[in-house]
Write a structure and sequence with these properties.
Number of helices: 4
Strand content: under 5%
Helix content: over 70%
Order of helices and strands: HHHH
Shape: elongated
Radius of gyration: 16 Å
Distance between the termini: 21 Å
Largest sheet: none
């Protein structure tokens, strides 16, 4: 893996480029691995949003609604 190329390929998204490179190392060319990684990272973000929201508002129901909206809202999708 050429780390210099990975970091500057799309220079405004170096973390995304690194995760794609790590996915490539882990899964090879199998797209199911890339999708699995994306789903797991999204689920982690939803859980973190819920935890942050419940701490910020002290209302777990509001935090759950916000997290669910974030989980399913199409604005958080990206074409692959």
């Amino acid at each position: 893996m050429n780390l210099g190329f990975v970091l500057v390929y799309e220079r405004f998204r170096p973390l995304t480029n690194v995760t794609y490179a790590l996915d490539r190392l882990a899964w090879g060319g199998d797209p199911r691995g890339f999708h699995l990684t994306g789903v797991l990272l999204h689920a982690l973000n939803v859980a973190l949003l819920y935890l942050w929201g419940s701490a910020a508002t002290r209302d777990r129901r509001v935090a759950a609604v916000v997290a669910v909206i974030f989980a399913v809202h199409p604005a958080t999708t990206q074409a692959i």
